[in-house]
Design a protein that fits this description.
This protein is mainly β. The chain has one domain: Porin (Beta Barrel). It contains 1 helix and 13 strands; from the N terminus they run βαββββββββββββ. Strands 1-2-3-4-5-6-7-8-9-10-11-12-13 form a 13-stranded mixed β-barrel. 25% of the residues are buried.
Length: 253
């Protein structure tokens, strides 16, 4: 099926869901030399005795590139139980299609599904279309991209009488550059603004900054921080959330 062998990756960096569209551009530009590849990850942790723990994480990242278009799928499933009480239950799937029009200009279409027990999110379904402008050709370490589009969002919450269907604008900027103070290292930033079209005061924002340093061709270390803002969160959910992560990745080609 693929022109290149499958790529298997073991990673301790968790994939987290966010409001509306999440940042997937690091995955979009991964292994830029490959026309097609798929990354699989499986993580299982457990303990018995004083502390009973079950922790399972499954991830997949698949890319198919052609001359003028590209398909990408990113998915994850996370479940954890501590002393017979659920401490994590979330799933996420993102499908993106892009097509070049002329030079740096292009179009894209997206479909996304997510569920997260601790955000009281029973289901979020998002689909949309947009225009993209790549003023700097994309590689693993260097890129510049602007996006402008519209998304349709359908959300249903657990134990909360709130179910909404609305249209949002989707504006984003993502940049990545090598850094001079470290060898084989780069920093990337993605920022999203997603106001509701019929109520500009209802806005969601996402910002993700990452630092990646390759220790070898296969081994890399990564640090990231993401900021999420929701002007109108559901009851008991904070309107500002931040996450920090660090970890190692090892890729076999």
């Amino acid at each position: 099926m693929f022109r290149r062998p499958l790529v298997f990756c073991v990673s301790i960096i968790a994939t987290s869901s966010a409001h509306a569209i999440v940042d997937v551009h690091d995955q979009y530009y991964a292994n830029s030399e490959a026309r097609a590849f798929s990354v699989f990850g499986f993580d299982f942790n457990g303990a018995t005795g004083t502390k009973e723990v079950k922790d399972i994480a499954l991830v997949n990242h698949t890319i198919v590139r052609r001359e003028v278009d590209q398909w990408m799928f990113v998915g994850s499933l996370n479940f954890a139980e501590t002393n017979n009480s659920t401490s994590e239950d979330s799933s996420f799937a993102h499908l993106r299609y892009t097509r070049k029009i002329d030079g740096p200009h292009g179009i894209e279409a997206i479909v996304q599904y997510s569920q997260d027990q601790f955000e009281l999110l029973d289901q979020r379904l998002v689909y949309g279309v947009g225009y993209r402008f790549e003023w700097q050709p994309g590689t693993d370490d260097e890129r510049g991209l602007l996006g402008l589009g519209v998304i349709r969002e359908h959300e249903r919450y657990v134990s909360v009488r709130k179910e909404q269907r609305l249209w949002r604008a989707n504006l984003y900027l993502t940049i990545a550059q090598p850094v001079s103070f470290a060898r084989d290292a780069s920093v990337s930033l993605s920022a999203y603004a997603q106001p509701a079209i019929d109520d500009l005061n209802d806005i969601r924002a996402i910002a993700v900054m990452s630092f990646t340093a390759r220790l070898s061709e296969q081994l890399a270390i990564k640090f990231s921080i993401d900021y999420k803002y929701d002007s109108e969160p559901v009851e008991s959910i904070e309107n500002v959330n931040m996450n920090f992560s660090s970890g190692l990745t090892y890729t076999l080609k």
